[in-house]
């Protein structure tokens, strides 16, 4: 099995593309910031068994792996390639049966809001899903809605995959996403990232 790799804007993350579905077309990505969190995914668990891996993100047709700062990609990349190739070639299930992503504490949905606030949240989520998430998926990451504070107009987003800990994520949030949301949703005043410890 041939797996190609792509660098990401985050120097500590690399995107692995096996050329076949990982979670499947249209599937919501799953972020595993620790080996313990990866217990619901045999594939993520296998990748965590490689020394130097500190997080794994599974996308529809890719795997993004983030490494420790003191580990070199020249040593890590071949081991991860072999692990992913062997796992997928064996036809093993990527996720345990019935496994679902665990929502971060404080994550909200449109149904948690009322009236105009609910409409604002629906617009925010629609813009993220149609304009932001496809673009950041190209870089091996994901950005999802966490919560909205109507009184202050602050939108909190969860950064996942290569986006978590990326040096350019602040610029992406402020210069890109915040400007986009403020343009289309006047109620939004600013955008903030939720702490990495609240990842899915």
Structure overview:
The radius of gyration is 17 Å and the shape is elongated. The C terminus is likely disordered. It contains four helices and eight strands; from the N terminus they run E-E-E-H-E-E-H-H-E-E-H-E. The protein has a five-stranded antiparallel β-sheet with strand order 1-2-5-4-3, with helices on one face. It has a three-stranded mixed β-sheet with strand order 6-7-8. With 200 residues, the protein is α+β, with helices and mostly antiparallel strands. It starts with a strand and ends in a 7-residue tail after the last strand.
How far apart are the termini?
Answer: 29 Å
CATH topology of the largest domain: GMP Synthetase, Chain A, domain 3
Q: Main beta sheet, described? A: 5 strands, antiparallel
Computed Rg: 17 Å
Low-pLDDT ranges: 196-200
Number of strands: 8
So, the CATH homologous superfamily of the largest domain?
A: Fe-S cluster assembly (FSCA)
Please tell me the overall pLDDT: 86
Which strand order do you get reading across the main beta sheet? 1-2-5-4-3
* CATH C-level class of the largest domain: Alpha Beta
What's the number of helices? 4
Choose one word for the global shape: elongated
- Residues in helices, as a percent range: 25-40%
Give the ordered list of helices and strands.
EEEHEEHHEEHE
What class do helices, strands and sheet pairing give? alpha+beta
Number of domains: 2
In the CATH hierarchy, the architecture of the largest domain is 2-Layer Sandwich
Strand portion? 15-25%
């Amino acid at each position: 099995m041939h797996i190609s790799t792509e660098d990401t804007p985050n120097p500590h993350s690399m995107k692995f593309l096996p050329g076949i579905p990982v979670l499947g077309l249209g599937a919501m990505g799953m972020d595993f910031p620790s080996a313990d969190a990866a217990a619901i995914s045999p594939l993520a668990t296998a990748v965590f068994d490689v020394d130097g891996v500190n997080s794994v993100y599974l996308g529809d047709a890719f795997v993004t792996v983030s490494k420790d700062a003191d580990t070199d990609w020249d040593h890590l990349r071949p081991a991860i390639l072999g692990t992913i190739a062997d796992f997928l070639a064996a036809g093993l299930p990527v996720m345990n049966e019935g496994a679902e992503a665990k929502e971060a504490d404080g994550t909200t949905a449109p149904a948690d809001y009322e009236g105009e606030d609910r409409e604002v949240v629906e617009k925010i989520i629609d813009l993220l899903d149609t304009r932001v998430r496809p673009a950041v998926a190209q870089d091996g990451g994901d950005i999802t809605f966490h919560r909205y504070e109507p009184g202050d107009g602050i939108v909190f987003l969860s950064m996942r995959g290569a986006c978590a800990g990326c040096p350019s994520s602040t610029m992406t949030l402020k210069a890109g996403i915040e400007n986009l949301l403020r343009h289309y949703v006047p109620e939004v005043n600013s955008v903030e990232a939720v702490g990495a410890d609240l990842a899915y």
